[in-house]
């Protein structure tokens, strides 16, 4: 699969998330407080809740239902009750177009305890 245009960069609000679905894969597209664009799985791993309805703070997206915050960079939950990460997708910006390939996820190194 190749990258799919999901929206224009100008459609994304800073510190907000937008839900998109590519071939049945729900993805939260987020412009963080630095203006960087991220794409993570849109379903909270604690419950079947859309993360794009949550709150963006810095480089995290917090689930509105139970408060688990996920790193937009790694997909890892930063607090309970979620303990499983969400996928993180590569984002390509071409002009004003935001493109995502749901078949390409970023590799995340495991936590070392």
The N- to C-terminal Cα distance equals: 36 Å
User: Into which percentage range does the β-strand content fall?
Assistant: 35-45%
CATH topology: Rieske Iron-sulfur Protein
Q: How many β-strand stretches? A: 9
Alpha-beta classification: mainly beta
Descriptive report:
- Keywords: 2Fe-2S, Iron, Iron-sulfur, Metal-binding.
- Residues 4-100 form the Rieske domain.
- Pfam families: Rieske (PF00355).
- The structure is a single chain.
- The chain has 113 residues and is mainly β.
- It has one domain: Rieske [2Fe-2S] iron-sulphur domain (Rieske Iron-sulfur Protein).
- The protein is built from no helices and nine strands.
- It has strands at 4-8, 16-22, 25-31, 37-41, 55-57, 60-62, 69-71, 88-94, 97-105.
- The strands form two sheets. A six-stranded antiparallel beta sheet has the order 1-9-8-4-3-2, with no helix packed on it. Strands 5-6-7 form a three-stranded antiparallel beta sheet, with no helix packed on it.
- A hairpin with a 6-residue loop joins strand 6 (60-62) and strand 7 (69-71).
- The protein is globular.
- The mean pLDDT is 93.
Annotation keywords:
113 residues, mainly beta, Rieske Iron-sulfur Protein, six-stranded antiparallel beta sheet, 9 strands
Q: In brief, what are we looking at here?
A:
This is Non-heme iron oxygenase ferredoxin subunit. This protein has about 110 residues and is mainly beta.
SSE layout and pairing:
Blueprint: E1 4-8, E2 16-22, E3 25-31, E4 37-41, E5 55-57, E6 60-62, E7 69-71, E8 88-94, E9 97-105
Antiparallel strand pairs: 1-9, 2-3, 3-4, 4-8, 5-6, 6-7, 8-9
Keywords: 2Fe-2S, Iron, Iron-sulfur, Metal-binding
Domain Rieske: 4-100
Pfam families: Rieske
